[in-house]
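User: These chains co-purify. Model them together.
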Amino acid sequence: MRKNIRDIKKAQGYFGPYGGRYVPEILISALDELEKNYVKTKNDKKFQEELSYYLKNYAGRPTPLYFAARLAKYLGGAKIYLKREDLCHLGAHKINNTLGQVLLARKMGKSNIIAETGAGQHGVSTAAVSALFDLKCKIFMGEKDIERQSPNVFRMKLLGAEVIEVNSGSKTLKDAVNEAIRYWVSNIDDTYYVLGSVVGPHPYPTIVRDFQKVIGIETKKQIIGVEGRLPDYILACVGGGSNAIGIFYPFLKNSYTTNLVGIEAGGEGIASQKHGASLSAGEKGVLQGSFSYVLQDKYGQIREAHSISAGLDYPGVGPEHAYLKEKGLARYEYILDKEALEAFKILSQLEGIIPALESAHAVAYAIKIAPNLDKDKIIIINLSGRGDKDIDTAYKLLKLKQAKI
Amino acid sequence: MKAMKKEKVRETKIDNVFNELRSNSRKALIPFITCGSPSIDGCMKLFDVLEKNGADIIEIGIPFSDPLADGPVIQATSKIALENGINTDTVMDTIVKIRSKSNIPIVILTYFNTVYRYGIDKFLKRASSAGVDGLIIADLPLEEFYNYRLFFNNSSIDKIMLASLTSSKERLYKISNICKGFLYCVAVKGVTGIRDGISSEVKDFLIKLRSITNLPLALGFGISNPEQINEVKKYCDAIIIGSKILSLLLDADDFNKGLSKVEEFMIKVKNVLKVN
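Assistant: Joint model of the two components:
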């Protein structure tokens, strides 16, 4: 008995105490298969060449690092650069991961692709890449998100995907993940689940981070190219945290010179309990397969998150972020809905760039800190997506605000 | 084979159930209910009906907001229970009340976050003093269990593990070596819920498990009718039924009509569980 217990290996896929595979037994073999194939593929030169080809010619990488001169001048402090992930094909950083995972799915001989989506960006991205490689695609999306991100729903359908409305729970991203996992459990043999963020059971947080770290690798080269040095701050919004980990990761060894700051959704304020700030205001727990920080009540029931941006409306956060926070390698702040909306307007008006409401959280944090920094300091904002999808939401809210004033 | 080695551990109430049944040539019936659905009173009445109509062990679910392994029926009862304000403490209180009049083995089924958040040690102590005999955590597989093994090993509650159609033989050995009470054999590649048939893989799965372990084999997930049970009863020691029973209540016009449907169903199933 003793010997047999010792025989069980300590669980894989931990970042310190965070991560793991808290899933029903039935998923273990699929996660093992995924991990095995991923490790093999990761070091396969042909796979990497193929991925690079599509990243360059299909997704449009490398994306520019753009000096936001008017924004910097307006704020009167640090220099501000934008990493233009909004210029990726389909308008967000999500394509980096989707291309990687769908290519992996093909290698594994899986004919059906499923994915969850919140804002719709990951769904659109997965639908597009599935179309590109002629794979069947189903996208799970909460009813509430379908309402507020209707242009993306149409895009997914146009790209040939089936959009499955999720009516359970809070009817948002978290519930879309639940449904996607349930579907995966039930169709484990021929289905590949393209998880869109650095959440979920191992190996997903690692796979998604590896496919997103291209953002940070490019950024590092680009900033050294223009400024001859590393930045003082890197700001990125954090829902699950894929764009943030993507830009942070290559800078982790430089965290003594570069402050890595993840910006969560403060919603209507922490006290209102209507927010998505799992790291700032959540507690340790297990959600959807990994141990991390979670918004929950005292009995461990998951609380509904809230954010103006569907992509940050998630009560959990990637386990690696929990680890970076604990180790002090990155820090995490939050921005309120109204601050994000203001930043959405400011960036549009000063730079002619309409950011996604998610990315507007990172912009808003720059607006907060830049005026107090010296002119020789450098801030890089990961502009993870463009805001066309948010026009309806912003229009309604900004009009409402005008009416009040 | 090493798995055949009998351990020196005291026999638990769950062990006793299976020891007796083996000599009676009957398979055990293990119904599942969600605590707090349709209400605390309602689920206590349901418990009563299940016990009076031949349940050998009863599984009580602590509802969780995000039940990944569950299909629509148990999602619905979990939601109802949570809306009724059910939490881990009220479940334990309910079990204490049940225990004042019933001695049937009770197994708690839940998800890890409810246990972790309560405090694993505190949870196990509270459950043990309430009179719980076994614990199933749907999303705590082997490796994660290992991280918390000291808590579980110090508790007198049987930690019941799940075995799935997709688990490798090597894993099944390890799972059955740490599992106590009975092995929860998942009959579908999928989530809980009502299904008509049963996959032909299940029979081979149970035969394989029988060669691996002496633990009682309890088959659950998707078991909803006597025909399915007839196909597989020879190869297992118990049948677990959740969604079907709960749906009889959910679909009924009123609660009492639902209860009599459950009664009818239990009698039907009970008859099928006899073996010659």
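Chain A touches chain B through 44 residues (CB under 8 Å).
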